[in-house]
Fold each of these.
Amino acid sequence: MAMNALTLLKQDHNNVDQLFSRFEQSDDPIEKRQIVDKVTEHLSVHAVIEEEFVYPAARKAIEEATGLVLEALEEHHLVKVTLWELEKMAPTDERFDAKMTVLIESVRHHVEEEENELFPQIREAMTQEELDELGTTLENAKLTAPTRPHPLAPDTPPLNMIVGLPVAVLDAVITTGKEALGKVLNRR
Ligand SMILES: [Fe+2]
Ligand SMILES: [Fe+2]
């Protein structure tokens, strides 16, 4: 059964927020590293599917949404830059926690704007059928989306789709080795 696109996106948001809470409660650098890696994977996929399908659909359906969407793209960009920095940083680095704390704050702000401003507009402008169809598109896109941040890659269609899959396969090799690679190859 198809899932409403907005329900799917909110589930993503909730999953990431649970990881944020776990990070905030942890004082073990090894655990924190693992949590940041999970956050990176979730947010990289989530950002790309929004950029590829949700934001363009919003701009198409709602003329006044353009400003919000352009800001959202800039917020995604800053999140990707921070995740990219965290990827290279040891969890014992004195900047690690501070960087993650600022990332958490900005993602929570971004999510709040999506859920309170953008999503209600989308819900009004699109039919139930269109939202379900978009949900199916998102579910499929998740299977091949990049799992690492690429702050310098194009973030608007059609260019982001062209680089999508090869990048996702490479990501899987770099991040977690065989386990993730198996996942990417299986999910195709
Ligand atoms: Fe977003
Ligand atoms: Fe989002």
Note: The two ends are 19 Å apart (CA to CA).
Amino acid sequence: MNRANFLKMSALAGTAFTVLPSKVVFGSPNSKLSIGIIGTGLRGQELLRLSLQRNDTDVTAICDIQQVMIESALRLFDKAGKPKPEIYDNGDYAYRELLARKDIDAVIIATPWEWHFPMAMDAMDAGKHVGCEVMMGSTVDEHWEVVKKAEATGLQYMMLENVCYRRDVMAVLQIVRQNIFGELIHLQGGYQHDLREVKFNDGQQPYGGGAEFGEKGFSEAQWRTQHSVDRNGDLYPTHGIGPLSKMLQIHNGNRYTSLVSMASKARGLHEYIVKVGGKDHPNAKIDFKLGDVVTTMISTANGESILLQHDTNLPRPYSLGFRVQGTKGLWMDINKSIHIEEVSKPHRWEETKDWFEKFDHPLWQKYAEEAQGAGHGGMDFFVVNAFIEAVKRNEPTPISVYDSAAWSVITPLSEASIANGCNAIEFPDFTKGKWKSAKDIFAIGDDY
Ligand SMILES: NC(=O)c1ccc[n+]([C@@H]2O[C@H](COP(=O)([O-])OP(=O)(O)OC[C@H]3O[C@@H](n4cnc5c(N)ncnc54)[C@H](O)[C@@H]3O)[C@@H](O)[C@H]2O)c1
């Protein structure tokens, strides 16, 4: 069954709970969407580039507060042969002028984390659907406010969690859906990426990172490092928890029930600053609050356990550290290995290659060519495609506002757990019970 039929049937059966826009009319795949992009830094530029490649999307306005980023964004319009957008660059709240435009249907927000909440709230107040980069808000209350705003306005809010669309992760989702791991028992994931020197150089942009951050930094170093000074928790849980949630059927008969976090001591950033800037560098005096490795455990209503790790301030190769384990076998991404009882040799790992070819998701089979060259090995194409297709058809986004809130709220919950001596914290149910009966609409078939 394709996705449109599935959605229609779910709606008819009264089981789809994701909020539909106020005029519940299934739009057409041929509709055209006008979007504005708020934040045209490095991430915003990739989301812009992907939007400009499409025939069903006009990017009519962009907003940023740094000329260097606006200029890079404008070059993308030239490259794509698309008309230049209206530019909003007059201060921190210039985005509200963009939102006041009547011709914009949806916005993509790719600004620093602390801006996501006010921008998304203002956008929905202005009647725009929201595709927001990862992290919904800073506090638990802010997450509730976004959920309530989406419900009250009937607008879509989708977190643009791209790892849900990684090719190997989607193959594993197919394997889970066919019950080949058996009943799921324990899952792991996280964000394990050496970000000590957030830098960039394409020949035109300055280098950033090193021992500098804040005003002297570039791109993420301007704002992200400050979170390591001020906060102690899992600051970036969604790349791990997003894909795992779809495998666990979270909000489709399952939900997160409680969470506990623990942080190690913080040494990595200080040692790095001393190494590259010298012990007398002013930043060598900073007392970083964020533990180098933050470990979070989450329980679910259906009895699975989840372990998440945040590890961005120590030397290490990149890995999201996935592990998906059931009663009949498991997958781990670190050594690209799978083991299925009575299929694999006893006690031996198998290479994943043949499995992933066999269970390649229909979306990847259909769009692999279009996705080529898109960021993060192609997965960025799919997340942009999903947001734009859903909004233009007036269908619920495959990552709902409830999903987005549950994945992102892990940050303030983990901060609270660590601050209170690693105690267990109850997980909020943003769906208010609707998780029990809602049907899974994520990546069903090969539509989007
Ligand atoms: N999903 C992914 O794989 C992925 C990858 C990278 C970044 N991100 C996320 O994307 C977001 C942006 O990250 P980035 O790497 O592009 O950072 P960045 O610093 O390069 O870009 C952020 C941009 O927002 C602009 N900005 C700040 N305040 C603003 C305001 N008030 N109004 C308008 N513009 C404003 C900045 O000038 C900057 O250009 C973050 O939430 C980050 O976590 C996601």
Note: The longest helix spans residues 67-80.
